Write the structure tokens for this entry.
Amino acid sequence: MKILKIMLVMVLIANFSFAQNDTSTPYSIFGLGVENKTATGGLTGLGNTGIAQNKSAEINLFNPASLSGIEPKTFLYEFGVNGMYSTIETDNLSENTTDFNISHVVMAFPVNKNIGLSFGLLPYTKVGYDIDIERYIEGSNETYTSRVTGSGGLTKLYLAGGIDITKNLSFGADFTYIFGSIRQESSLYYESLVNIVDENRYHGFKLKTGLQYNIINSENLNINLGGIVELPTSLSGDQTRSSNTTLSSGTYIVIDDEEAYSLDDFELPLTYGFGITSAINNKLTTSFDFTKLKWNDTDQSINEETYTDQSIYAFGAEYNPTPSKSYWSNVDYRFGFNYNTGFLNISDNTIDSYFVSAGLGLPLSDLSKLNIAYSYGTEGTVNNGLVKENYHKLTLNLSFIGSWFNKAKYN
């Protein structure tokens, strides 16, 4: 009952919080918007690596097999926020934006010694753009300006579990429900003002499975391998459209009043990934992940833009000093790098991105930790009239360990 109550409170808080999320990247006009790229725990500071990571006191969303390692009689919960300062530029213009977002609200607990469960809510995609497009009137040298704005995004609600198959091998599965809406408003003026509002709603399920295998476990060296497979799926969609025009005389005319239409399903691709994590003397941990998303197989496009297979390469390193009475000797020091080839091809340019990150794991007590990560990254290009975004991002993840399953003792 306590867990069910927390889930209900979490859903209410997260739904309100995610509704306040914002982003300001023009590339969110494509598809379902930009993906929420913030990871749990200290994994953002490690370049978003985590396929082979397995820590008993951290929730890992990259590989559900890691949930089997949660310590008995504990309850993990984590809340994350991030802020981003971006410079968006073309070959002759530049604009600065500031965004703030709730990145996740997640929890995990053991069912028994070898089985762990996790559930949570987090943004799946975010949409936010405001674009002015100048067009020529057909058969004339005169122009008119069309303004297109977008907002909203999709939310991910998941339930995941992990189980030890053998002493060194664990398996996990992640069941996710994706839902939400994307609002696009188009306004153009030439002799009269025309306003069109589309509300696109999507929903669907997806399944991810994962494995982790500990190949070396000695006093001085520990090496884990990890793998994930995310099955392709379709998100069903429908659209509500309303439109109106305002004449120069001030007369207001309704063209469409909340007309409903079906949308083509949005195809999410087959995804697979591999990772390796090694720890030397319990002090230096390094991780490398590779993830492939098979967008070509979805056979879908957006206007003249096409989807292309996407590869993500990620590296992370963490240093843990020998614990002592000094506070800073108990801090985790992290570094990461992530390169993403992107999944959009626009004007013969693939929209790739990268970021470098540095982070700290700051203990607040024996049962809580604040993970801070700073990232600098870039996405896109100014070639062929496209847009490039350079950003500075600060991520804060606050995690707690609760001992909720201990029976009360009476004298």
Q: What stands out?
A: DSSP finds one helix and 22 strands in the chain.
